C-alpha cells in the first residue's frame, strides 16, 4: 500500500505543552484511521513558536520532553505510524554556561521521530536564523548531522520510502538537502514555523522548488498556522514534485490535516494532494489580521474588545477586522466627540456601528477638555493653543477607554497605522493607549486599499459594505483643531508611504530616495520624523506584523543617536 503522509497544520499555543501534545495525539489518531502512516507536525509544535526566553528555562525544556513522551506513549499502539514532533531538546552534554552576563545554551531546535512508543531518530536544526523576527542563536546551538528514516504504507514494507528530514531554515540552504540525499533520502520533508508577511507564501514555494531541482527529490512542507503576539503563521503547507512543480497545497489561515499520497514507480516518486487555489494579497492580508486579533485575544483570555470609533478610516477598518475576528457580540465601540468633531463624523460612526451591529456609545469629552484648560489656564496664560491642547483631547479619550476596559475586562484596541507610527503623528498615552495595535504595520495607503477590498468582499459573512463610502473618500483628519486635515502636517500619503517603504522597510539612503525622484526637503523631513519618534514607538502596544519590516522585533534602533542616515 502506498505511503500516505498527513501534515498536522494546526494552531499550537506557546507554553501549552499538554494541550499541544493532545492536539498532536488527536490528529495522529484521525490521520491513522484515514490511512496515513507518517504524520508531520510543524517546527517546535510541542511548545509553540516562538517561546523566546522560555527556552532558557530548564523546567520548560523538561516540560517539552514530558509532552513528547506523552505523545509517544499515547500513540504506541498505532502499528506502523511514524510521527515527527518538533520540540526543543537539551544538548548532548546537558549543560551550558549560564551567568548573569553569559548565556550559552547547549540546546537544539529539534525534531523527534516517534514510532510505536519509541524515539527512532532525532534531528537538530543546522541553520539557525538570526534576522527579521528570528533570534535563534540566542537559544540554540546548530546541529551537525542528517536524519533519514524509513516510512512505509503497510507492515509489509513494500512501499517503503527513505525520508530526509529538515527544519525550516535548513531548506533555505543547499547543503542540508544535499547531505540528506547523499544519506539515501528519496523524499524531503521540511517542518516549519515561518512567520507571515505579504508575499512570503510564494517566496517559500519558489525556494523549495530550488531544493527540488537541485536534489531531484520531491518535497513536503509542513507549516504552522495561528497567531503568536505580533507574528502570524498562515499555514499553506504544500507538496512539490521532484521537478519543482506543485503537487498540492493546503488552505491558508485554517487548521488542516493536509494529506499527501506518495506513489512510487520504477523511475520516480510522485506526490498527489489537493490544491487550494492561489489567493490575492488582500485576502491574505485580511485573514492575517483577523487571525492575529482572534488568537491574541483568545489565547490571552480577553472576553472582548473595545475601541474608539471616530468616523475616520483607521478605526473603521479596525472595527471591520475585529468583528470578522470575534463576532459583533464581543465588540464595543465608543464615539467621543470633542469641540472640533464634525457632524459627519458622528453620522458616519453611528452608521458604521449599525452596519456592523456592534454596541455603540457616545461620550462627549468636552466637559473634561474644558476642565483641563481651566486648571491649566494660569500656567498657560498668554500662550497660544498648539499640540498641547490637541494631545489633551487624545489623552482624555485614552483615559475613558482604559476605564471601560478596567471595568468590563475587554482589551482596548488602538487604531493607529504604520505611517502615523513612523512619523509620530499620534499621541503618547492618548490614541496610543491600549493593549493591541491591529493595523500597526499597515501604511495609510494600504489602509485605504484594504477598506475598499473589504467593502467588495465579505469573507466571514459578517456583512457586506461595512464601511460607509464617505469614510473612505473624505480627507483624513484627527479633528483636534478647527478644519484640521492630516496633510496640514504630513506630505500626501502617496508620497509619505513611498518614502517610508524605501527608507524604513528597504533601508535605502536619503540620497538614493532623492535620486529616485523625491524632493530632498520632503525626504529629509520624513527621515528626521522617523528618528525623532523612536521613543514613542518603544512605548506603543504590540501589533500584528504583516510586512517583512515592522515596528516590532524587525526594527531595533537606538533612541539616542546622532547618526542622520
Give a description of the structure:
The protein is 35% helix and 19% strand. The chain is of the alpha/beta class and 565 residues long. The model has no long low-confidence stretch (mean pLDDT 92). The strands form 5 sheets. A 7-stranded mixed beta sheet has the order 7-6-3-2-1-16-17, covered by helices on one side. Helix 1 (17-33) runs parallel beside helix 2 (58-74). Strand 18, helix 6 (313-326) and strand 19 (331-335) form a beta-alpha-beta unit. It has helices spanning 17-33, 58-74, 174-182, 200-215, 281-299, 313-326, 343-356, 366-376, 387-408, 418-423, 444-456, 469-473, 493-505, 510-515, 520-532, 534-538; strands at 3-9, 38-40, 82-90, 97-98, 103-104, 107-115, 118-124, 148-151, 161-167, 187-192, 219-223, 225-228, 231-234, 238-240, 246-249, 256-264, 269-273, 305-308, 331-335, 359-362, 411-414, 436-437. The chain starts with a strand and ends in a 27-residue tail after the last helix. The chain is built from 16 helices and 22 strands. It is elongated and about 90 Å long.
Amino acid at each position: 500500500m502506498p505511503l500516505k503522509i498527513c501534515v498536522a497544520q494546526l494552531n499550537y499555543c506557546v507554553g501549552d505543552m499538554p494541550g499541544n501534545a493532545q492536539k498532536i495525539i488527536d490528529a495522529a489518531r484521525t490521520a491513522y484511521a484515514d490511512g496515513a502512516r507518517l504524520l508531520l507536525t510543524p517546527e517546535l509544535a510541542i511548545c509553540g513558536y516562538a517561546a523566546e526566553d522560555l527556552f532558557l528555562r530548564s523546567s520548560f525544556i523538561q516540560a517539552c520532553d514530558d509532552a513528547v513522551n506523552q505523545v509517544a506513549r499515547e500513540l504506541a499502539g498505532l502499528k506502523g505510524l511514524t510521527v515527527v514532533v518538533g520540540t526543543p531538546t537539551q544538548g548532548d552534554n546537558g549543560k551550558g554556561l549560564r551567568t548573569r552576563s553569559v548565556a550559552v545554551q547547549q540546546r537544539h531546535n529539534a525534531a523527534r521521530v516517534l514510532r510505536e512508543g519509541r524515539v527512532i531518530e532525532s534531528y537538530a536544526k543546522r541553520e539557525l536564523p538570526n534576522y527579521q523576527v528570528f533570534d535563534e542563536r540566542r537559544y540554540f546551538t546548530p546541529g551537525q548531522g542528517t536524519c533519514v528514516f524509513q516510512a512505509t504504507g503497510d507492515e509489509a514494507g513494500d512501499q517503503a520510502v527513505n525520508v530526509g528530514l529538515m527544519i525550516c531554515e535548513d531548506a533555505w540552504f543547499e547543503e542540508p538537502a544535499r547531505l540528506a540525499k547523499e544519506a539515501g533520502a528519496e523524499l524531503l520533508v521540511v517542518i516549519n514555523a515561518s512567520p507571515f508577511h505579504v508575499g512570503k507564501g510564494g517566496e517559500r514555494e519558489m525556494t523549495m522548488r530550488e531544493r527540488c531541482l537541485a536534489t531531484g527529490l520531491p518535497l513536503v512542507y509542513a507549516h504552522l498556522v495561528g497567531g503568536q503576539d505580533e507574528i502570524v503563521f498562515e499555514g499553506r503547507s504544500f507538496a512539490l514534485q521532484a521537478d519543482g512543480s506543485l503537487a498540492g497545497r493546503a488552505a491558508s489561515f485554517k487548521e488542516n490535516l493536509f494529506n499527501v499520497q506518495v506513489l512510487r514507480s520504477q523511475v520516480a516518486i510522485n506526490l498527489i494532494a489537493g490544491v487550494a487555489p492561489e489567493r490575492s494579497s488582500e485576502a491574505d492580508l485580511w485573514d492575517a489580521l483577523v487571525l492575529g486579533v482572534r488568537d491574541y485575544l483568545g489565547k490571552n483570555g480577553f472576553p472582548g474588545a473595545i475601541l474608539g470609533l471616530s468616523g475616520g478610516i483607521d478605526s473603521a477598518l479596525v472595527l471591520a477586522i475585529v468583528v470578522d475576528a470575534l463576532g459583533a457580540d464581543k465588540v464595543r465601540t465608543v464615539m467621543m466627540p470633542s469641540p472640533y468633531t464634525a457632524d459627519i463624523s458622528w453620522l458616519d460612526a453611528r452608521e458604521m456601528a449599525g452596519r456592523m451591529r456592534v454596541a455603540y456609545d457616545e461620550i462627549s469629552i468636552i466637559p473634561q477638555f474644558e476642565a483641563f484648560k481651566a486648571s491649566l489656564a494660569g500656567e498657560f496664560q498668554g500662550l497660544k493653543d498648539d499640540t498641547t491642547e490637541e494631545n489633551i483631547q487624545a489623552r482624555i479619550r485614552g483615559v475613558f477607554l482604559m476605564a471601560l476596559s478596567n471595568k468590563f475586562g475587554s482589551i482596548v484596541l488602538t487604531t493607529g497605522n504604520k505611517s502615523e507610527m513612523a512619523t509620530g503623528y499620534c499621541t503618547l498615552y492618548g490614541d496610543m493607549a491600549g493593549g493591541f495595535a491591529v493595523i500597526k504595520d499597515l501604511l495609510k495607503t494600504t489602509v485605504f486599499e484594504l477598506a475598499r477590498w473589504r467593502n467588495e468582499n465579505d469573507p466571514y459573512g459578517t456583512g457586506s459594505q461595512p464601511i460607509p463610502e464617505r469614510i473612505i473618500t473624505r480627507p483624513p483628519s484627527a479633528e483636534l483643531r478647527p478644519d484640521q486635515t492630516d496633510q496640514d502636517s504630513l506630505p500626501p500619503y502617496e508620497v509619505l508611504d513611498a518614502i517610508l517603504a524605501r527608507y524604513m522597510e528597504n533601508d535605502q539612503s536619503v540620497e538614493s530616495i532623492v535620486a529616485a525622484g523625491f524632493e530632498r526637503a520632503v525626504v529629509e523631513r520624513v527621515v528626521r520624523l522617523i528618528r525623532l519618534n523612536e521613543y514613542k514607538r518603544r512605548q506603543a502596544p504590540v501589533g500584528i506584523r504583516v510586512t517583512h519590516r515592522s515596528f516590532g522585533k524587525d526594527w531595533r534602533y537606538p533612541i539616542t543617536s546622532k547618526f542622520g542616515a
